[in-house]
Write a structure and sequence with these properties.
By secondary structure, this protein is α+β, with helices and mostly antiparallel strands. The chain has one domain. Helix content is about 25%, strand content about 25%. The protein contains 2 helices and 6 strands, in the order ββαβββαβ. The chain has a 3-stranded antiparallel beta sheet. The chain has a 3-stranded mixed beta sheet with strand order 4-3-6. The chain is globular, with a radius of gyration of 14 Å.
Length: about 110
């Protein structure tokens, strides 16, 4: 598993698998490009308390996606759709598990 980092403002730094991070970036980017704010929630790793974290994402706040690997992971359109539905709900984007479907390469990426 290749781990990337999601940095929110100067307050929060969270490690996610590069594949997960790529899907988050696509969904969050689409919302923020439209000027839409949203909540983003995920379950914390056991090492930081095994709780849950939620952040408020706004187009004016800086986000940095730092990938560990040099190649873009394969994108699963079904997962993007599932995450986008979540992001468009009142509860905001929940980090949901990837659906069991075949992935499609976008930008020549690898899994």
């Amino acid at each position: 598993m290749i781990m990337g980092t999601f940095n929110y403002d100067t307050v929060l730094k969270v490690d996610f698998d590069d594949r997960v991070l790529a899907h988050i970036q696509i969904v969050v980017g689409a919302k923020l490009r439209r000027g839409e704010s949203l909540y983003f929630s995920w379950r914390d790793d056991d090492g930081v308390g095994d709780g849950r974290t939620t952040v408020w994402l706004h187009p004016a706040l800086p986000l940095v996606y730092k990938y560990f690997g040099s190649k873009m992971p394969r994108i699963n359109p079904a997962w993007i759709e599932k995450l986008t539905e979540s992001a468009n709900s009142a509860g905001g984007l929940q980090l949901l598990p990837e659906p069991e479907t075949t992935t499609t390469s976008v930008n020549g990426g690898e899994r």
